[in-house]
Amino acid sequence: xKTAKLITVLILAIGAxxxxxxxxxxVTIRVKGTIKPVACTVDLGYGAGxxxxxxxxxxxxxxxxxxxxxxxxxxxxxxxxxxxxxxxTHVGLVFSNTANTVTPGLQHHVHGQPLTTVTKFGxxxxxxxKAGSYVMSLTHPEATxxxxxxxxAQWSNYDVAAKIHVKPIAVNPTGSMVEVLVPSADGSIGxxxxxxxxxxxxxxxxxxxxxxxxxIAPKNTLGTGAGIELNGSATVSIIYL
Length: 241
Fold this sequence. Notes:
By secondary structure, this protein is mainly β. The chain has one helix spanning 2-15; strands spanning 40-43, 72-73, 79-89, 91-97, 108-110, 113-115, 124-125, 132-144, 150-151, 154-159, 164-168, 189-194, 203-216, 234-240.
């Protein structure tokens, strides 16, 4: 009797169909992650990322020049620009014109030195297409590395889109940058901190004076009636070279 039961169980087990998954002969191993540069911050004396404002107040129209070849130049001392990094890194800056209303054909001045319409550190709008525009200059750069040692650094014109240093930037005797700059495809101006104009240099702390120098269009081109509101804006961003 015991034998019969055993045979019955064996027959049922053999008769039950068994299904196997299709075999594979390979498997993928993915290796992922992100290598991030040392974090840097930029500020203009009001804290990292805090906006800075140049307010010229009320400008009397009668004080503006009429001669179309002699627009009115306003000089300012600007801000103390400071780039601070957690450790030595290759760093640069991008200046983007966020009020793209530049009045064409104006001659600008930086620190009393006349600049042609193409020889300047960028050109940025004043918020009104006929009001004028402004240029900026960076003077007295100072850089130190992680050991606190002063680094011989200079600016180079950096093409943000192509990610290449275009050329070193010449300075005038006052130390301000007045060399012609090549904007990227989006119109932004890129500056790299380099040792010889083409090779990035490692810095931890970088300081310079940033001046904003507006040029107001001749009075007879501004029209009449309500006053013109100056509302220029530019953004300064960190880039890692």
